[in-house]
Amino acid sequence: MSMRAFSQNLFLSSVLFSLLSNSVAVDTIAIGQALRDNDTIVSAGETYELGFFTPGNSKNRYLGIWFKKIYPQTVVWVANREIPITNTAGVLRVNSIGKLLLLSGDNTMIWSSNSSVFVRNDNFVAKLLDSGNLVVCDNSCTDQDFLWQSFDYPTDTLLAGMKFGKDLVTGLVRNLTSWKSMDDPSPGLYVSWMDTNGYPQAFQKRGSVLQLRFGPWTGVRFSGFPSKPNPIYTYDFIYNEKEVYCIFNLINNSIMSRVYLSPEGNEMRLNWVDPTQGWMPYLVTTVDMCSNYGLCGAYGICNINSSPACICMEGFEPRYPVQWNAGNWTGGCKREKPLKCGNEDGFRKLSGVKLPDTRNSWYNLSMNLRECEQACKRNCSCTAFGNMDIREGGRGCLLWLDDLMDVREYNENQELYIRINASKLSVMKSRFNRKVIEVVVASMVGLVLVGLAMGVYAWKKKLSPTQREGNLVKVLSEDYTGGGQKKDLDLPFFSFSELSKLTDNFSVNNKLGEGGFGTVYKGVMEDGREIAVKRLSETSTQGHDEFMNEVRCIHRLQHRNLVKLLGFCAQKSENMVIYEYLPNRSLDTFLFDETKSSMLDWIKRFHIINGIARGLLYLHQDSRLRIIHRDLKAANILLDSDMNPKISDFGLARRFKGYETRAKTKNVVGTYGYIPPEYAVHGVFSVKSDVFSFGVLVLEIISGMKNREFSSQEHRDNLLGHAWRLYKDGKSLDLVGASLVSSCVISEVLRSVHIGLLCVQNLAEDRPTMSSVVLMLGNDGILPQPKPPAFFTEPELDRPAQPSVNNVTISLTGR
Ligand SMILES: *[C@@H]1O[C@H](CO)[C@@H](O)[C@H](O)[C@H]1NC(C)=O
Ligand SMILES: *[C@@H]1O[C@H](CO)[C@@H](O)[C@H](O)[C@H]1NC(C)=O
Ligand SMILES: *[C@@H]1O[C@H](CO)[C@@H](O)[C@H](O)[C@H]1NC(C)=O
Ligand SMILES: *[C@@H]1O[C@H](CO)[C@@H](O)[C@H](O)[C@H]1NC(C)=O
Ligand SMILES: *[C@@H]1O[C@H](CO)[C@@H](O)[C@H](O)[C@H]1NC(C)=O
Ligand SMILES: *[C@@H]1O[C@H](CO)[C@@H](O)[C@H](O)[C@H]1NC(C)=O
Ligand SMILES: *[C@@H]1O[C@H](CO)[C@@H](O)[C@H](O)[C@H]1NC(C)=O
Ligand SMILES: *[C@@H]1O[C@H](CO)[C@@H](O)[C@H](O)[C@H]1NC(C)=O
């Protein structure tokens, strides 16, 4: 059936395992059966899998559902998000009243489902459907009337067929709540929900602050939210006396699509387009200035592209002109001429905007626009009206009964009629038509919500080609505040605003990845050259001058196996470095991907091993700066178009001092699976720790398997231990991944395994230096015998109980 492994405690027991005896995949758990930590059930079509998992760098166990065939593991639902299990003793059972019980080892209840029946039935089962829905039903499970279903309790993900909204009869609410972080599925800061005050709208909040309003449904979409005809899914909004929800369905079930609310509050639709590409953002909601609820106050209109961003609707003027002109728009606008409730009021048509907040509104789906106007006129609180549904010429009546809030320019073709003093109206009529046209055009340009498909970044086209040749040799900029340093820097300076523009405001769409020292974004310069912008995280304690020193040092490091630094930015407490963009991205995207790994034959892999070794040797020795990388791993090896490896993130490690005492240790420096025992235990780093990481990398390159996620049916070792066992048995060639067998050069493979094992020795002193490694790789002299690697836990083998720190001479951590 299924077997899963996870790395638990790095230096006590390197890997814990759980195995399942059964070998046939099942999709149900019957009464009396138990799903243990080492078991999973798999939906009939093998789309989804249910079991226990460990998120990110956490050590906790959670019961969840993930895509069976997608790597990396993509969890779509979590049962015990608030109460983790701290060991592998968790058990899921179904009881005879159809309740799911998640119990810890000592039988305390961790989590349970809610059952609506209180009748015993020994035929109840829990079943994982191919839609990703975990349901409780009697054993036929034919009718849709489930006792319980996980679809009723979404976490941060909506799958096809899941309702997002509210059951108006039972009161059941289906919200999306972000995870706290990638390591922690407990409810995070962001919640997105369907609001049923007035005419329903979707909202997102951050903590208690309203952050984003998706606008009312216009018949084709939520006003202000993008939709595009697409071949992948259809979606709908259902509103009747029983329930209100939106839902999407897949057109082609073989394509996977999900709506996801990230821990950072980005709500997006992701499609699994192609097995080699991973999850592609298809629609992303960008939180920008104008999405700030109430930024422009009542009767204000926000336009992200204009300055100032807020204007008053026509016929309205700033309520507090002084504050308004100073950029505080929250006071909003008031009528230039008061209303005189009754027939004398007129209405001004406004289109090209996202509809105002409808939480205080009234509606009737059978009324037409004329009846709607009459209804508005009759009610003195009515400030505007419009159709509910723009399809088929428009139908229904929506009345706004409050100040009009949260309007922004948007390419929306629904018309809105704003109540206004009729005398005012006649004056404005002539000006009005022109305004509408302007509004429509402006909002077409300023689409906040960026649709992204097939890797085509729409914004790319917006960049106007200007003369920026020589940008890379242009050093000075008005924004630059570095004073006297200008002259001696032969490295281009980029201003924050410039980088912000080149990366579309550091949009998630341009995010290439997140690494030890910050987040990397892709950017396109005006001349079309692509760059990678690394925005350093704030963990550094360094000041401006120190940063500049580091940048200068890194800039002087030039080697064909190191990523080239193109520029930097040090401004507004933002430190960024700009690198060449390498189209083939990082080694891990090839190595650990079933399809793409076949593009790396042995010749290429051996070339990559050699290149990394040379780059590292240069850092350790030849550069005279003695740079210790500290986070060498497959994700930090970038590949150029000819598959030449280039080490990235080198030199940055020097900036992050004292990291091991910080809460963000795991994110900042070192990645489990790549760090040696002396660091894990004592936080001590030396060139030999890089050698250790290099050894892990070599074994990963040969095997195509991740050290951290490696699992075997025969033993409990990690990849290092596995390689060691094979080596001892003279079966090193068995380590070679299936896709490599045909291309491998046996002597080179054997030698590489051997060198890899020498590099991952438990004691730093037993590991070779990089200069030895380069020599060993390059000739065929006799190699020393390796001892068992670090973290090898086989009891019968004689090994030190505690990793030793002898002979570790260089430590950047000050310990
Ligand atoms: C799964 O774990 C249980 C105890 O947690 C154990 O009894 C069982 O043997 C394990 N199954 C396998 C295949 O390891
Ligand atoms: C469980 O369901 C019952 C009725 O179905 C409901 O009254 C109760 O509030 C629910 N409890 C929880 C914790 O959801
Ligand atoms: C859903 O979100 C709304 C608004 O934040 C909140 O009032 C409600 O309690 C939430 N319900 C659930 C079940 O999370
Ligand atoms: C569904 O998508 C798959 C993969 O893209 C394709 O091979 C198949 O033909 C599609 N089926 C239909 C009915 O469009
Ligand atoms: C903005 O103006 C409003 C009144 O219109 C005032 O209450 C508020 O304090 C002002 N905010 C700031 C930051 O000045
Ligand atoms: C909705 O409008 C129709 C047609 O004008 C009317 O017959 C009906 O009573 C209205 N419903 C409500 C709830 O006002
Ligand atoms: C306006 O209409 C709303 C909704 O029907 C109603 O609650 C309110 O009392 C009306 N106000 C006046 C002044 O008629
Ligand atoms: C428009 O406002 C003025 C006051 O500025 C008022 O005297 C007049 O009656 C209003 N006109 C209408 C049609 O309500």
UniProtKB/TrEMBL annotation:
The keyword Coiled coil does not apply. It comes from the Eukaryota. One of its GO terms (molecular function) is protein serine kinase activity. GO terms for biological process: recognition of pollen. Keywords: ATP-binding, Disulfide bond, Glycoprotein, Kinase, Membrane, Nucleotide-binding, Serine/threonine-protein kinase, Signal, Transferase, Transmembrane, Transmembrane helix. Its EC number is 2.7.11.1. SMART domains: B_lectin, PAN_AP, S_TKc. This is Receptor-like serine/threonine-protein kinase. It comes from Mikania micrantha. The lineage of its organism: Eukaryota, Viridiplantae, Streptophyta, Embryophyta, Tracheophyta.
